[in-house]
Amino acid sequence: MTNSLSVLAGTLISLVSFTSIALSQPACVTQNMAVPLGANTTDKAAPFFIDTTGLDFKTAPPTRDPSNPNYPRATELPDGTLPPSGAEGNFIIGPTHNPAPETIAKEGVPRGTTKSFTLTSKESTIYNPGLIRDDVAGCTNSSIMTTVTAPDDKSHMIVTTSHPGIWSRTIDVYVPAQYVRGTEAPFIVVGDGGSNAYKDLATTLDNLIAQRRVPPMIAIQIGNGGQDAQGSQRGREYDAVSGDYAQFVEREVLPLVEKNADVKLTKNPDGRATMGLSSSGVAAFTMAWFYPDLYHRVLAFSPTMVNQQWPHDPSLRGGAWEYHSAWTGPATPNLISKAGVLTPAEPPGVPLIVAAPVKPIRFWFFGGDQDLFYPNPTIPDGMHDWTLSNALTAKVLAEKGYHYQFLFVRNAKHVDRPTIAQTLPSALEWVWKGYPIP
């Protein structure tokens, strides 16, 4: 065989091998943005109904109309403006979202410092071992984008690819220049720490603290446990409707913050806030919901008030959707475990916020008009419309008399970065209203 033929043969062998490898790799399933196949969109009285009222499917995700009768009535503001300081209730903003001036560093403003440390699952009691889901390399959430739900229950996703594993996360602690060593400081716990969505947080706090619009607070950004959604460590922490994550923060993170950053954190729940985005946004609310003796103030961007909880919980089959609305499945009572035996819960099907006495929670949040809509095509359960879930949360908060501010945001997608840059300073100021500023 001549050299040229050898080269040609080698090239063909390489091409065949490469093609075989490429063909053996399954194509990534892209995020769904439309009504899933097999969904019930016609019979409102039947289980797992998906309401498409007021949705414009010419965009993906669909654009929602703020005048949708399913949403609470809201005050529409002039484009580019925000609600008055301290205002409560529902507001419509957009479509223009310019960054607030407080997000930009200013000369002469004292700057805080940030100290970082790492925490691993080996050091944890609550989340040891961690949880890892086997996905195809380079394909986000691949193993759950092609899974199935349980027979006769479209809300119960079957995940078989998760197993125990190890996690490691970074914790970044912002300490304001005005902090006096040895004194107890108010603080805000920030989920999904390290996200680009928080790139302006330290600068914003520098400016707001200098202007005496918020107290000099410690900001604790806690990285998530890894991956996303059902079967992941991140989903296990954030989407569970339980007090586990709050206890993880209280018992395992905050003592290390005090030690590594040389600060003292207040025990007063009025001086403790939570903050997050998407699933860490609902986790921020969950922390205060289960432990109002620890947290009174909550701030969330596109909080995941939908059915993302996994493993499936027969006592709360709709996950966080059941904060504001009943499970969408057949009309049967939730089940609770008593001495290891599942028994009907009382009252059956009543949403958590509706059923519980009012808690001392102050809640600021927004949802975009193009927020997530059934991103996973395998779970057509009537409980995965992020915009609707946020609007319904606002509705029940109003009915119960909570202090809250909800923004329906035009021209905004999930965890919309321009909207965060526009609203972060005013949101922080609103959340901390009433707290003494020295």
UniProtKB/TrEMBL annotation:
<feature type="signal peptide">
    <location>
        <begin position="1"/>
        <end position="22"/>
    </location>
</feature>
<dbReference type="InterPro" id="IPR000801">
    <property type="entry name" value="Esterase-like"/>
</dbReference>
<protein>
    <submittedName>
        <fullName>Esterase family protein</fullName>
    </submittedName>
</protein>
<dbReference type="InterPro" id="IPR050583">
    <property type="entry name" value="Mycobacterial_A85_antigen"/>
</dbReference>
<keyword id="KW-0732">Signal</keyword>
<dbReference type="Pfam" id="PF00756">
    <property type="entry name" value="Esterase"/>
</dbReference>
<feature type="region of interest" description="Disordered">
    <location>
        <begin position="57"/>
        <end position="79"/>
    </location>
</feature>
<dbReference type="InterPro" id="IPR029058">
    <property type="entry name" value="AB_hydrolase_fold"/>
</dbReference>
